[in-house]
Design a protein that fits this description.
The complex is a heterodimer. By secondary structure, chain A is an alpha+beta fold. Helices cover 74% and strands 8% of the residues of chain A. Chain A has a four-stranded antiparallel beta sheet. In chain B, the strands form two sheets. In chain B, strands 6-7-8-3-9-10 form a six-stranded mixed beta sheet, with helices on both faces. In chain B, strands 2-1-4-5 form a four-stranded antiparallel beta sheet, with helices on one face. In chain B, 42% of the residues are buried. Classes of the chains: A alpha+beta, B alpha/beta. Chains A and B meet through helix 1 and helix 8 of A and helix 2 and helix 3 of B.
């Protein structure tokens, strides 16, 4: 086992000891960090769920393609070929006969349809592209509009754009919130480590005199900051899960009232680990700043 | 081997604690740095042990010019020294064994080997039975012996002490002298700053006498 590994292991053990030595302080710091990370994390999960809701909402990201009335079966086949190449997603062909039947079955429409001399409805396609970004949908709509025998292309782009703008606004607000609370986390770690460095100034002085490198002195504080941040991140993930669990019932009931079966998606393992890693990074950053400034004072 | 040439240390404010000092200490020698209070003994010890940097002149220790040493190289050089201070600089939040373990932890020694060596060092200064004791529970002489154990545990080539018997009674002071003499006998270079003349009578070491920062003998 080389010296580098031994020293890192010892520094990690020292960081655990420090966390354990003052349980109340540790708990309070973890709660502060946990809450600071919970708000942006919850916002992220909420936006993610909203994005899913938007994606799954029927008709939101569909393009309706109406053929001209004189389009033949061959023209329909040509459009199918083009869709196969252009739209990386699903589509459904709705023959004009089916459309008329559906119209006839609508309440109060049977007599009106029966009085028509011929079927006024065109053949149509319902396209659900894989890429549902508003810009991509608009490009596809324009492309389809230029195809032969296509009379009209309809995209509910206004709704999609509004929804996308809302998501973007939410994302921006989330970043600002995350920045603020991230800075808070760095500040909490900074102060905790500053107090630790002050309390251990005698040990640091002795260690330096007998040959400790800056790395040896700094390492336990870095591990402490990162550990505290990581544990705070995990606490935040637990708080987000608890909040989602509390909201699951009311959200399900609301969705049912709108005829849907939407349920909130909790953060997965990767997202939880991401939150812990973010906490660890911010904790490490706070420790780095604090140790650098504090040690400069001891020089 | 320690070789100083025109070594000068000037503190901010203009005080020249060491002036144009030139001397040579051979490997394995026992050297006493003596002089009245304020003669520059402590500053010279700090210069040799790299705690202070010289203002001018050169100081070569074991072939390394300490005056030209980069900041990052200093900790590695210090590991070749065993330092003993008048106020011991022990850590009172850990027991005697853990105090002695510190230099080995800094050097990255495996824990088991480090404990074995720390216990051997404590044994050498007669404190093995007190390894679990907190330094605060030790007498002044025992604390100084503990500081020596910590200084020698890393097998330094040079043992440097600043007034190691300054706060001790005569008997405890003599016991400390004997420990230093033992290390000298096994080939360690011993450099001690002291105003205690009993060292000279007892061990007839080489003497480096300072007067107002200048080497006079």
């Amino acid at each position: 086992m080389n010296a580098w590994f031994i020293q890192h292991r010892a520094a990690l053990a020292a960081a655990f000891r420090r966390l354990w030595a003052t349980p109340l302080n540790t708990l309070l710091s973890l709660i502060v960090i946990g809450i600071a990370l919970t708000l942006p994390a919850f916002g992220y999960v909420a936006l993610d769920n909203l994005r899913d809701l938007g994606r799954n909402a029927s008709g939101v990201q569909q393009i309706s393609l109406f053929m001209s009335l004189e389009a033949s079966r061959k023209d329909v086949g040509e459009i199918e070929n083009r869709l196969r190449q252009a739209a990386n997603g699903k589509w459904k062909f709705v023959p004009k006969e089916d459309a008329l039947k559906r119209m006839q079955s609508s309440e109060g429409m049977a007599e009106i349809v029966a009085s028509l001399p011929r079927n006024p409805l065109p053949d149509a396609f319902i396209v659900e592209p894989a890429n549902t970004e508003p810009e991509a949908l608009e490009i596809l709509r324009k492309e389809i509009a230029g195809w032969p025998k296509v009379a009209h292309v309809q995209l509910d782009s206004a709704w999609v754009k509004r929804f996308d703008a809302f998501l973007r606004l939410g994302k921006l607000a989330l970043w600002m919130l995350a920045g603020l609370f991230g800075a808070g986390l760095v500040a909490v770690t900074f102060n905790t480590i500053r107090l630790q460095v002050m309390a251990q100034s005698a040990e640091i002085e002795v260690a330096r005199m007998i040959g400790a490198t800056d790395g040896f002195i700094r390492r336990p504080f870095y591990y402490f900051g990162a550990l505290q941040g990581a544990l705070g991140g995990l606490l935040a993930a637990v708080l987000v899960l608890a909040a989602l669990r509390l909201l699951a019932g009311p959200v399900g009931e609301l969705a049912a009232l709108y005829g849907g079966n939407f349920s909130l998606r909790p953060p997965g393992v990767v997202e939880t680990l991401g939150l812990a890693s973010l906490g660890a990074f911010l904790g490490w950053l706070g420790a780095q700043l604090s140790v650098s400034l504090s040690l400069r004072k001891l020089d | 081997m320690i070789e100083a040439s025109n070594l000068t240390k000037r503190y901010p404010g203009g005080l020249e604690a060491v002036k144009d000092a030139s001397f040579a200490i051979e490997a394995g020698q026992m050297v006493l740095i003596t002089g009245h209070s304020g003669a520059g003994k402590t500053t010279l010890v700090k210069l040799i042990s790299t705690i202070e940097r010289p203002t001018s002149g050169s100081l070569v220790v074991n072939g390394q010019n300490l005056s030209a040493l980069g900041r990052s190289a200093i900790p590695h050089v210090r590991r070749h020294f065993g330092l003993v201070f008048q106020d011991q600089k022990l850590l009172f939040d850990r027991n005697a064994l853990e105090n002695v373990l510190l230099p080995l932890q800094i050097a990255g020694q495996p824990r088991r080997e480090a404990i074995r060596r720390a216990q051997a060092a404590l044994d050498k200064v007669g404190l093995l039975a007190r390894e679990k004791a907190n330094p605060i529970a030790l007498s002044g002489g025992e604390q100084q012996r503990l500081a020596i154990a910590r200084a020698v545990v890393n097998r330094p080539t040079i043992l440097i002490a600043d007034e190691p018997t300054g706060n001790l009674d005569t008997d405890s002071g003599m016991a400390i002298l004997d420990i230093f003499a033992d290390f000298h006998r096994v080939g360690v270079t011993v450099v001690v700053a002291t105003h205690d003349q009993s060292w000279i009578e007892r061990y007839h070491p080489n003497v480096l006498r300072l007067d107002h920062g200048r080497v006079v003998a």
